[in-house]
Amino acid sequence: MARINENFLKLKAGYLFPEIARRVKAFNEANPEKAARLIRCGIGDVTEPLPEAARNAMKAAVDELGSRDTFRGYGPEQGYDFLRESIVENNYSKVGIGADEIFVSDGSKCDSGNILDILGPNNRIAITDPVYPVYVDTNVMIGNTGEADEDGRYEGLVYLPCNAENNFVPAIPEEPVDLIYLCYPNNPTGASATREQLTAWVEYARKHDAIILFDAAYEAFIQDPEVPRSIYEIEGAHECALEFRSFSKNGGFTGVRCGWVVAPKTVFGTTETGKKISVRDLWSRRTSTKFNGASYPVQRGAEALYSEEGKAQVSELITHYMENARLLREACESIGLSVYGGENAPYVWVACPEGVSSWEMFDRMLDEAQVVITPGSGFGAAGAGYFRISAFNSRENAIEVCERIKKNLG
Ligand code: MLT
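Structure for LL-diaminopimelate aminotransferase, as requested:
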């Protein structure tokens, strides 16, 4: 009989968001009147229409495919030059990243899991706690961990606690590690990291020949001009960091799917025998073998987000979601809850009232307010006692959620 990858059996319950969807579905079936009032602030999925610039570019690209003269089949696996160049011009022109260091993909979730293909089995891996669950689960799947303990912490991972005391940016560990996952602006806590904090991480990584996997999917939501938008703004990061970026949240591409990885030529890993190997070259090789590129119309749509019109439309979306975040923050603060995030990120991270657990809060918000939130403990043991509210919603829904929070939790 065919053998399965038994590492999958170490995974705890289902992946967080499908698990929430399952619970919400069961609730809706059992409570049809309440179901009609349901507002979803759980998964961070965009709600507002796709920018017109992207729609027009995608339509034009589809029409190109409809004529023999302009038809395109397989594209370059690493992405079309037009998009790789636009990405550099609009994000990295001041920090010395080249178009041949950009790898266009179908999104950051896949990239942040797939990267493990090119990294070896014996790395010491640090993750923040709470954390975007993909980083943990993909390490479990590939066999980089032992079993989970009763708090859900996997043997073999180094957990870096993030809490209100450290503003949800972890302290540098005492021990050396080889890989560090950092996500700023942060999912789930909505925290941002300062230049000094990121500099300390880059220095640590260089000292230990470690690689930082820097997830900047929420970069577009940064409001504070002092907050770095890319890890490459930090000196030395070109030698030790890969960056993951996405069009999902700024351009409304969660369903369209497009993102990119930055793999600088100056980042190296090592073989067991100590030979230095270019991470960029391995990622390019992996991409050519396992991927046929993001679709042409999608890449044209992504490129159009950088047109003057596209930039203005993206900016409107960001303003819209960040205003929701402000309203949600204020509503929670007004009833005396401790609130974090929501200032440079579309997530508001809230401490549950005294003695209420994250999942109790989830059930209570669903049953009493018909609002879906994400329980903090779903992001790791250190998320226990918190819940996350996503600001991705219509204004009308965000305002209604604020009212219900005040009424039901106040
Ligand atoms: C989230 O809600 O944490 C995000 O939507 C997850 C994702 O982007 O994959």
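The CA atoms of residues 46 and 392 lie 5 Å apart.
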